[in-house]
Amino acid sequence: MVVHIVKLCVGVSSVEDLEAHRDREMAARRAAGEPEVAMHVTRMFPARKAEVEAGGSLYWVMSGAIQCRSDIIGLEHVTGSDGIKRCAIIMSPEIIRTSAAPRRPFQGWRYLKPEDAPRDLGVSGEGGDELPDELRAKLLELGAW
């Protein structure tokens, strides 16, 4: 069984901001001769590691809604410079836009069942892929489709 992770993207207000950050991260990794993977470090380590690594994604919440995701490659234990153990979420550098799915603020991360995950944009069905993110999110919230 696969399970995803959903997390607030603190300090980032749009998918474009995240893409710019990811581009800088990949350039730094290339320059250092490191593998081109994205990494996000969080305090708690998922107990359902095998399910997350079986094809899960990290879904990012920005401006009150899930807006995009990245495929998770693996989860690794890391220790910070302060000696505290943490979890490094290793992801594909690709950012995949999703339909907007409203979420209230929360701390840390949460599991997300595949059937509750928003669909990737570009898949036929909903339409509105060319709309600005904020307008698309408002239309979804109002039940326009």
Please specify the SSE layout and strand pairing.
Layout: E1 4-8, H1 15-32, E2 38-42, H2 49-53, E3 57-62, E4 65-79, E5 85-91, E6 96-102, E7 109-112, H3 133-141
Parallel strand pairs: 1-3
Antiparallel strand pairs: 1-7, 2-5, 3-4, 4-5, 4-6
Structure in a nutshell:
With 145 residues, the chain is of the alpha+beta class.
Describe this structure in words.
It is globular and about 45 Å long. With 145 residues, the chain is α+β, with helices and mostly antiparallel strands. Strand 3 (57-62) and strand 4 form a beta hairpin. It has one domain (4-141). The chain has helices spanning 15-32, 49-53, 133-141, and strands at 4-8, 38-42, 57-62, 65-79, 85-91, 96-102, 109-112. The protein has 3 helices and 7 strands. Strands 1, 2, 3, 4, 5, 6 and 7 form a 7-stranded mixed sheet that branches.
Shape: globular
Helix content: 10-25%
Strand content: 25-35%
> Unreliable segments (pLDDT under 50, ≥5 consecutive)?
none
How confident is the prediction overall: mean pLDDT? 89
What is the domain total for the residues? 1
Quaternary state of this entry equals single chain
N-to-C terminal Cα separation, in Å?
A: 29 Å
Q: Structural class, from secondary structure content? A: alpha+beta
Give the SSE order as H and E letters.
EHEHEEEEEH
